[in-house]
Amino acid sequence: MRFLKSVLVIILSMVLLAGCSAAKPAANVQNNEGKAEEKVELTFYYPVAVGGPLTKTIDGMAAEFMKENPNIAVKPVYTGSYADTTTKVQAGVQGKNPPDIAIVQSTELYSLLDMDAILPLDDLIAQDGGDEFIKDFYPGFLENSQVDGKTYSIPFQRSTIVLYYNKDAFKEVGLDPAKPPKNWDELVDYAKKLNKDGRTGVEIPTTGFAYWLFQAFALENGKNLMSADGKEVYFDTPENVEALQLWIDLAKRDKVMPEGVIDWATVPSNFIAGKTAMMYHTTGNLTNVKTNAKFDFGVAYLPAKKNFGSPTGGGNFYLFKGIDEKKQKAAWKFIKFMTEPERTAQWSIDTGYVAARKSAYETEKMKNYISEFPAAAVARDQLEFAKAELSTHNNGRVTKALSDALQAAITGQTAPAEALKKAQQEAEKALATFNK
Amino acid sequence: MEKGQWAAKFKINAYAWLLLLPSLIFLILFTFYPVIKTLIFSFYQADLSTPEPLFNGIDNYRRMLGDEVFWKVLKNNLWITLGTVPTSMALALMMALYANKLLRVKSLIRTAFFYPTVIPMIAIANIWLFIYTPEYGALSHFLHWFGLEHLNWLGNQELVTWAMIIMIIWKEAGYFMIFYLAGLQNISQELYESASLDGAKSWTVFSRITFPLLMPTTLFVMVIAVTNSFKLVDHLVIMTQGGPDNASNLLLYYIYQTAFSFWDQGMASALTVVMVLILVVIAAFQFLFLDKKIHYN
Amino acid sequence: MQRRVENIAMFGLACLWTFPLIWAFWTAFRPREMATSWELTPDFTLNNFVHVWNGAPFAQYYLNTLIIVTGILAVQLVTATLAAYVFAKVRFWGRDILFILFLVQIIVPADVLLFPNYNVLGDLSLLDTKLGIMMPYFASALGIFLLRQTFKTFPSELEEAARMEGCSWWQMLWKIYVPLARPTYIAFGLVSVSYHWNNFMWPLIVTNSVENRPLTVGLAIFATSFETGAQWAEVSAATVMVILPLLLAFLLFQRQFLNSFIHSGIK
Fold it and tell me: What is the number of other CB atoms lying within 10 angstroms of the CB of residue C107?
């Protein structure tokens, strides 16, 4: 009998051991509920594509918000890159443990809708803000937010792709630093002139965001890559094959761009170090380049083919299902606070992202900044030619199909036409169930 | 009397199972139940277009067989295995033979070989990413010294496989060395003494005594090495995300992508079943070949 | 002659093996703008570490990893000791089949069951908790296997003698078996600690919040967050911070480390 008892003691203590650690989160929940009467708590996932101290900026903004609204507690959670954050948020949704608010790429709209994860914001907009609020956002940015007349996300850290060029290098080879390349022919021509030992003419990153960069070329050559309802894609058009051929020619024929896949993160380092004379990159990089480049540089629209063009990019605020009305109101308050013109203007100045609201550009702060640094307005002005970023149902698969095809062509494994055709087939397979 | 015996037996059985219970609970919860559930789930369509899982028979498997990426990641896994296992094992054996003697300097060298084992794969990926980066990376600098062009190690489909193989050999060889050191400890010194009395050359000693006696260790290390080559994927998150065009993608990372980026849960389950099957086959190999050979002593 | 060639070759190989570590340390202490140049200037700085420390909550990550690693080990030791004792010393119904079933975990470790285990944890409502990270590893077939091998070598006279003294079985386990199997415990402990200190994929998908994020995941998030340009110096500094504790422990106790690996019967 004695040993049975001791076995029981051991088993019991094991259970307790597990129980102890399990008790902690449970206790927290109780606390939360206890406080809920007076205080609303919100978890808020955000990526910072610009890294480092800017996490402090967001935390600081949240702290400021809580000072103004002592009955709302916002808990900002830094969740890594855009891709990491998307995974975290979607995993949370699937695991029935989503955040209350999150900044996720605007392109996740259809995926999040298919998961039945996000709330339409129209009621909240109507109650507080109205047309005046929503119409203040640039329509180019709202394209990825709206479907079937409903608005599901509010633009926050948004961008377009711009051309950065080294004015000193331009002068060195006898090009006019006030005249960046306006079209594809000039791009090739200038890149050839600028290319020399230890410096490439131009770099277009092709790792994580290859599809995004490619989209710019597709838009310049006529047409966006997908339909507005996110159910069809147009990858293998002759125009797109021509665009992809241009990339390959830059590297293989003209030798003015490095061969193989070019890493997104090292391209700005190369530009700042003077190892490439021009680069295609997000405007979110502007402040970084401005602070670190030791030469005179310019920012320009992407060179045109039939017309100018760039996809928009970046992240929006989403609200997640399963939170009560009180929380929804509090979350909406927070979103409105974060997108106030003054604050958006400051965010834009700190990073280079485009302030998503027109009125941000009417603030003194922004006017002063642009008058002393006109490059800051280029990405915003380019919005006139900007279209929605590639966003479809089954977005992860479709995007990867395109990125894989682009990399296959760039690394010389597959001819451009064939690669894009394969991507088209893959994407159609992935979209088939949504087209029934 | 008989009743008492039965009672005693029952008591022993009860307490044996009670003591096993804690381990058993966690084992069932996180090994057996998930494996069975995965198997069942692999016959369902469960993705973003199906809010509720739908039984679809072997459809996932049929799609998998038609999926080029699936075959590509299998092929990559095979290349990584072929590229890393024999080389790292040969290096490990060399290192062990050399470091077996207990001199001070040699223990330093032993340390140098072993330390990658205690570094997280994520940290290793960061370090090697900076080694492979074109222009700034260590390798570029070295090649530059010799007047060679820098290569885009991670941006080229052939080179990226080599880059990964070299890194994994570096990470694993020291770990395998430990097993060989253990194996060498078990070989009796008398054998060597009598061999040296007979005037045998060191190569003869190695090929006639050391190597055959290390055979069980070799087989054991091989199984670990092969299994590891299927499990090591952490570095892909940092270095390539499987690119360019899946040239560095591996099965486990593809499962991760399918599950947590495509949210194709039925397919992720089918892929997991394949993964489990591969591991079971490797284990069966160990059971059939290894155990017999190991029992000689 | 042959000896000399051998020495030089192995020394060269060792240098090659240490290079990545030296490279990481070197970069970590270089000023940011000099990280990419190979000029041998005497410029060194601690700024990178300051930036990393202020830029991400690494102190919290350390604490999390510490809790996770010790939590797993503590539970593993208890569960493994009990199970190993039963497998080694008690004859009971279903023993052999059960033992083989336990070994399945060595063949199919929790790490490859990422996706199904994520769902199990979701059903238990333990996502984004430290307990959730630890739980799949609470039972260790490897630990059971190693301890069983060791316990088997203890003669049964030991047990009889202990019975005569009036020890209960658990007193005997605690006072005789555990101390005698100490080398095995140390070896298993080291393997377990270094494994879970380095584990990445599982905590990556399970954790969201800073309160539960271990070092490896924190490092990965830190390293991939620089989308506007690689910050080599800072990433190297963060890397060094993450690897240092285990590396130091290994260098200080390397004899015990290696010997316990070698003699523990991991063969």
Answer: 20
Query: Do B27 and B122 lie in a common domain?
Result: no
Q: For domain C2-263, which CATH number applies: 2.40.50.140, 3.40.190.10, 1.10.3720.10, 1.10.8.60? A: 1.10.3720.10
**Site from C115, C225, C234, C235 to mutate, A interface, most A CB atoms within 10 angstroms:** C225
* Closest residue to C117, CB basis, from B22, B34, B115: B34
CATH number at residue B233: 1.10.3720.10
Both tokens of A388, joined, read 């929605």
Place of tokens 């279903």: C94
For C226, the closest of A45, A82, A265 (CB atoms) is A265
Q: What is the pLDDT of residues B82-112, one digit of tens each?
A: 999 999 999 999 998 888 765 666 778 888 9
* C-alpha angle C109-B230-B69 in degrees, rounded to nearest 5: 120
CA distance B88 to B230: 15
For residue A357, give the DSSP letter.
B
B131 touches chain A (CB under 8 A): no
Closest-CA residue of A relative to B8 is A1
Q: Which of C17, C65, C131 to mutate to test the interface with B (most CBs of B within 10 A)?
A: C17
CB contact under 8 A, A288 and C122: no
Within a domain: B285 = yes
pLDDT in tens, C222-263: 887 765 566 788 899 999 999 998 899 888 887 777 776 665
The gap between the terminal CA atoms of chain C, to the nearest Å, is 34
- Whether the Cβ atoms of residue C257 and residue B178 lie closer than 8 Å to each other: no
Q: Do B260 and A14 touch (CB under 8 A)?
A: no
* HSE value, Cβ hemisphere, 13 Å, CA-based, for B52: 0
SS3 call for B109: helix
Residues in chain A with CB shorter than 8 Å from the CB of B156 are: 259-261, 411
Q: What pLDDT does residue B186 have?
A: 77
Residue B50 lies in a domain: no
Q: Which domains are seen in chain A, by residue range?
A: 40-158+313-385 (3.40.190.10), 160-310+392-434 (3.40.190.10)
ipTM: 0.90
Beta strand A153-166 with A276-282 is antiparallel
Domain range holding B9?
1-41
pLDDT of A170 above 90: yes
The whole-angstrom distance between A39's CA and the closest CA on chain B is 34
Q: Does B52 touch chain A (CB under 8 A)?
A: no
Partner-chain contact C227 A284, CB within 8 Å: yes
| Residues listed for chain B | 297
**Set of chain C residues whose Cβ sits within 8 Å of the Cβ of B124:** 20
Interchain contact B8–C (C-beta under 8 A): no
Cβ of C55 within 8 Å of Cβ of A91? The answer is: no
**B217-243 burial by CB neighbour count: b if 16+ within 10 A, else e?**
bbbbbbbbbbbbbbbbbbbbbbbbbbb
